[in-house]
Amino acid sequence: MNASSPRIRNGFTLIEMLATITIIVILTGLIMMGTRFIKDKQNRSKAELQLKLLAKACEDFKMDQGTYPGKSDNSPADGKHMTNEIFNDLFWDSNRNGSGPKADIDQKTYLTELDPDNNKQGWIEGTGQAARILDPWGNEYFYRKGANAQNPDFDLWSAGKDGKTNPDNPRDKNNRDDIRNL
Ligand SMILES: [Ca+2]
């Protein structure tokens, strides 16, 4: 046996180990960024689809009832907290006689996707008459009609990923990621 024969190297040196860890960290970061980007795009597409569904149902409601959803003629100028009224008019109690869809067979349903018991869109929060409609980021959609709306019919929009919106100032940077029905 020759004690001076070259030692077979196994394992990593410290530098190799650090380099490997660095590469793994960078790759993980890139994958996470990519995943987040895809998720954001999916959420935006979903909000666009949901706004289309809601807008179409609002038009159908108007055809029958002569007015867009919402009890008062002038909904709040900021468009906040209106989704429960939309939900009631388009799904729960469209003939406004106080009976829900299961108790009232004469009632028309304008958007079956709003059913809290079959929430495939994942946008219904709450149960029964109290339910509200949320965008893919978990915030209520915004809605206004009448004199407060900028559109001749109604304004319907999502505040987008940042959850912030400023309907009074179209140039507000919080509006950049908003998603609108038009
Ligand atoms: Ca926004």
Can you characterise this structure?
This protein has one domain: Glycoprotein, Type 4 Pilin (2-Layer Sandwich). The longest helix is centred in the first third of the chain and has 52 residues. The chain has two helices and five strands, in the order H-H-E-E-E-E-E. Helices cover 34% and strands 8% of the residues. It is mainly alpha-helical and 182 residues long.
What is this structure's SSE topology?
Layout: H1 14-65, H2 83-92, E1 124-125, E2 132-133, E3 142-145, E4 154-158, E5 179-180
Antiparallel strand pairs: 1-2, 3-4, 4-5
Calcium ion binds at residues 159-160, 162, 164-165, 174-175, 177-178.
**Structural class determined from secondary elements:** mainly alpha
Under the CATH scheme, which architecture would be assigned? 2-Layer Sandwich
Strand order of the largest sheet: 3-4-5
Helix share, percent: 25-40%
CATH class category label:
Alpha Beta
How many beta-strand elements? 5
CATH superfamily, called what?
Glycoprotein, Type 4 Pilin
- The total count of helices amounts to 2
In the predicted model, the low-confidence regions spanning at least 5 consecutive residues are none
Q: How far is it from the N-terminal to the C-terminal residue, by CA? A: 85 Å
CATH topology: Glycoprotein, Type 4 Pilin
What composes the largest sheet? 3 strands, antiparallel
Which value, in Å, is the CA radius of gyration?
26 Å
Helix/strand order: HHEEEEE
Shape: elongated
Q: Are any ligands bound, and if so which?
A: calcium ion
How many domains make up the coordinates? 1
> Percent of residues in beta strands?
5-15%
> Mean pLDDT, rounded to whole units?
91
